[in-house]
Design brief:
It contains 19 helices and 21 strands. By secondary structure, the chain is an alpha+beta fold. It folds into three domains: 5-265, EAL domain (TIM Barrel, Alpha-Beta Barrel); 274-401, PAS domain (Beta-Lactamase, 2-Layer Sandwich), CATH 3.30.450.20; 417-543, 2-Layer Sandwich (Beta-Lactamase), CATH 3.30.450.20. The chain has an eight-stranded mixed beta barrel with strand order 1-2-4-5-6-7-8-9, surrounded by five helices. Strands 17-16-20-19-18-21 form a six-stranded antiparallel β-sheet. Strands 12-11-15-14-13 form a five-stranded antiparallel β-sheet. The structure holds ligand C2E and magnesium ion (MG) (2 copies). One magnesium ion (MG) binds next to strand 6 and strand 7.
């Protein structure tokens, strides 16, 4: 029967005296070889009248009343006693984790009290592991950092319990140098195959970049255990393997031989200070979030799968499809691509793996969001490999939405194609003359047929020198240009061009700025059939 809050508050002394609290130990396993790796001590309260009470009911009350340190030291003592009995019997000892509440850590000599108990039973620290929760660090991070350092100096491994329950997970990880992360599947509502699964695998990946082993808690089914193993988290605690057991039963398990006592971080990342990278306040992150454009961290596997682990706000703004960070992180990145664009993107990733340099590609992707109709966007991505692990590659990707530029470019390209076709059909050459700089920019036909460079400075002299304008027409043509410079709105006349003296009708139309000053003149030359007058080269006709 559940006790009232009042009854709980007033019963601790007597319950401790009468040894109503008992520790149960929940075994932890390595799912890849089914070996026992240790256990977690969880307190149980057997009340003589009210029966078994759940820690979820009484722990928060003892935390509230400030009584929890007494209970936790009692539990710690039971754990030490248990380990001592194993040591005395010369049996193998498995590390047992014990819970330390945030309130315990506020007690100035809590760690000293722990140490006194440990020394009384003479238990090596390696058989004990401290579990603190993420929320311990909320608001008082420096203080907890100091305590964790102290525990480390004493030789304890520190586990972060209930990782993923808070919003500040990453924040906490960067300051608290925990040795093991405990990820509780209940925070992901059993969605192991769906969105929750992607978040879980991202956390496991992040933990790997930090070189920190993860124990998955709350694993109830084989599917969940297999899934965790498939994403590289083989350490499991949960009902699938075992409920919390009375110490005698846990002890029986340890007598069996399939045991593995140490937790080895399995994979390492090379070449990257990832702790700094994931640290939300590091310079890298500051740059990631503020100074660069859209950026993402992408995990690419050589089996072709890809996962986005992080994005910054500007990434969402670049896409501007009302997508949320959660959408982007939980969707399959390949879902936006058609086969051809996926091939381009994938081959660029692979090129970047080989070159270890920044590589770029443009790909079209179709984005869909709740409120907008599907839209095809062209994204320019530049990708840089930042870490490798087995056959997985971590990329820093910068993106720019170039859809508008691309569409304008495509329009210009199409109109240029039309112009090219028309100019070929009509045998027209065209160019642009800039009055301020005296630069001439020819069309593709001038370049192709006459060998004119893309920009001609000091126009028209180089073309006169090259013989495109025959010497007897040079002065006349120079005069045309002077008139254009002075603001003549148009010019027209027939000029024989090249040594072959092929007659062309040459026309100019001048463009003026808003103050009426001439800016540019557009020139064209069309082949004509008429025979040229032999004498008067000054065929220029000024129109006003
Ligand atoms: P916790 O430290 O995260 O412990 C894990 C909890 O998950 C335990 O609940 C355990 O019985 C439960 N659990 C384990 N496997 C599964 C599973 O597969 N499915 C589900 N649904 N649950 C699973 P329990 O024993 O009720 O403890 C609840 C919480 O109370 C603990 O969460 C811990 O925060 C706190 N607690 C327990 N013992 C102590 C203690 O001695 N001191 C302090 N300060 N807190 C304690
Ligand atoms: Mg715990
Ligand atoms: Mg937990």
């Amino acid at each position: 029967m559940r006790m009232s809050q009042e009854q709980i508050r007033n019963s601790l002394d007597q319950a401790l005296k009468e040894e109503q609290f008992v520790i149960y130990i929940q075994p932890q396993y390595n799912h890849s070889n089914k070996a026992l790796i240790g256990g977690e001590a969880l307190v149980r309260w057997f009340h003589p009248e009210h029966g078994m009470q759940s820690p979820a009911d009484f722990i928060p009350i003892f935390e509230e009343t400030g009584q929890i340190p007494r209970l936790d030291l009692y539990v710690f003592e039971q754990v030490c006693k248990y380990q001592k009995s194993c040591i005395d019997r010369k049996e193998e000892c498995y590390p047992i984790s014990f819970n330390v509440s945030r309130e315990d850590l506020q007690v100035p000599d809590y760690i000293d009290s722990m140490e006194r108990i440990r020394q009384k039973y003479d238990v090596p620290v390696s058989f004990l592991r401290v579990e603190i929760t993420e929320s311990s660090a909320v608001g008082s991070i420096d203080f907890i950092v100091e305590l964790v350092d102290r525990l480390h100096r004493l030789g304890y491994l520190v586990e972060m319990d209930d990782f993923g329950s808070g919003y500040s997970s990453l924040n906490v990880l960067k300051d608290l140098k925990v040795d093991i992360i405990k990820l509780d599947l209940k925070f992901f509502a059993g969605e192991v195959g769906g969105r929750g699964g992607i978040i879980i695998s991202s956390v496991v990946n992040m933990a790997k970049w930090l070189n920190t082993p993860v124990i998955a808690e709350g694993v109830e089914t084989k599917d969940q255990a297999d899934y965790m193993l498939s994403i590289g988290c083989e350490l499991i605690q949960g009902f699938y393997y075992s409920r919390p057991l009375p110490t005698e039963e846990f002890h029986k398990l340890t007598a069996q031989k399939t045991c593995q006592k140490s937790i080895n971080p399995s994979q390492f990342i090379e070449n990257l200070d990832t702790g700094r990278f994931w640290n939300p306040e590091s310079l890298e992150t500051l740059i990631f979030s503020n100074f660069v454009g859209g950026a993402a961290i992408l995990l690419y596997s050589l089996d072709g799968s890809a996962e986005i682990l992080r994005i910054n706000n500007k990434y969402l703004r670049e896409i501007s499809m009302n997508l949320t960070e959660k959408d982007v992180l939980s969707n399959d990145p390949w879902g936006y691509f058609d086969a051809e664009n996926k091939r381009i993107y994938q081959s660029t990733l692979e090129k970047a793996i080989k070159s270890k340099d920044e590589e770029e590609c443009e790909t079209w992707r179709t984005f869909v969001s709740g409120c907008c109709s599907p839209e095809r966007l062209c994204i320019l991505s530049s990708m840089q490999l930042i870490g490798t692990m087995e056959n997985k590659y971590l990329f820093y990707i910068m993106i720019r939405n170039i859809t508008k530029e691309k569409r304008i470019f495509n329009e210009i390209y199409a109109s240029d194609q039309r112009f090219r076709a028309a100019s070929e059909h009509e045998n027209i050459y065209a160019w642009e003359y800039c009055i301020a700089t005296k630069e001439m920019r020819p069309c593709f036909r001038c370049m192709r047929d006459l060998g004119v460079p893309a920009v001609v400075e000091n126009y028209p002299e180089p073309l006169i020198d090259a013989g495109i304008f025959p010497p007897d027409y040079a002065d006349m043509y120079r005069d045309w240009m002077r008139q254009i410079d002075a603001g003549a709105p148009s010019m027209e006349g027939v000029i024989p061009l090249t040594v072959g003296r092929i007659p062309f009708l040459i026309r100019y139309t001048t463009e003026f700025d808003e103050n009426g000053r001439p800016v540019k003149a557009f020139g064209s030359a069309r082949l004509i059939e008429t025979k040229l007058p032999e004498t008067d080269p000054a065929g220029g006709k000024k129109e006003s």
